[in-house]
Write a structure and sequence with these properties.
The complex is a heterodimer of chains A (about 120) and B (about 110). Chain A has strands at about 5, 10-15, 20, 25, 30-40, 45-50, 60, 65-70, 75-80, 90-95, 105, 110-115. Chain A has about 120 residues and is mainly beta. Chain B is globular and about 40 Å long. Classes of the chains: A mainly beta (about 120), B mainly beta (about 110).
């Protein structure tokens, strides 16, 4: 079974509007971390935001915020005031067992975001 | 966070040949991760490379096809051996430094 599910293969948003990219996860660990990355057409992977399972507040980084709903096991990325440069693939990832030596990330399939002018 | 220099950024190679990809990190890191991203797909972990020990390969990846070297705490190479068109992908190295994992800029490989 997939551990990271991104149900939106593609999304469109109008410039200057907000958009939410969905991510649900599955883990039995109590200690885990959730990440969002952006991948423009150039291919580089850009770290956007991180949420730890014990963090009480939702993470925010500039125009990016993470809507963390632990009981629902969801970690949606919210991009406010979309810009044309936000057009890219967005990946949700999880690291289980933060206190263990296992540092592998588990990746979702990604969501392609297109920002329309 | 770390800064990673990955080379080459892209290459076009003949089938049956090999390509070595290099990643240089600006600080010492324990683990380095090598990923493959096939066209239109997500990232797939190839192996985890620790300095001074053999790399740990994920299911479906073998050392003969993807030999990895990790001579010190700031450098690693991945070789894609005996290439076929199915190896055409983006290859990325990554390190766990701070909260967010940092990635190299990627190597876009086309095998013809």
């Amino acid at each position: 079974a997939q551990k990271i599910t991104q149900t939106q293969p593609g999304m469109f948003v109008q410039e200057k509007e907000a958009v939410t990219l969905d991510c649900t996860y599955d883990t039995s660990d109590q200690s885990y971390g959730l990440f969002w990355y952006k991948q423009p057409s150039s291919g580089e992977m850009i770290f956007l935001i991180y949420q730890g399972s014990y963090d009480e507040q939702n993470a925010t980084e500039g125009r990016y915020s993470l809507n963390f709903q632990k009981a629902r096991k969801s970690a949606n990325l919210v991009i406010s005031a979309s810009q044309l440069g936000d057009s890219a693939m967005y990946f949700c990832a999880m690291r289980e067992g933060l206190r263990s030596s296992n540092r592998k990330l588990i990746w979702g399939l990604g969501t392609s975001l297109a920002v329309n002018p | 966070s770390a800064v990673i220099s990955q080379k080459p950024s892209r290459d076009i190679c003949q089938r049956g040949t090999s390509l070595t990809i290099q990643c240089q990190v600006d600080s010492q890191v324990t683990m380095m991760f090598w990923y493959r991203q096939q066209p239109g797909q997500s990232l797939t972990l190839i192996a985890t490379a620790n300095q001074g020990s053999e790399a740990t390969y994920e299911s479906g990846f073998v050392i003969d096809k993807f030999p990895i070297s990790r001579p010190n705490l700031t450098f690693s190479t991945l070789t894609v051996s005996n290439m076929s068109p199915e190896d055409s992908s983006i290859y990325l190295c990554s390190v766990d430094k701070g909260l967010g994992y940092t990635f190299g800029s990627g190597t876009r490989l086309t095998v013809v």
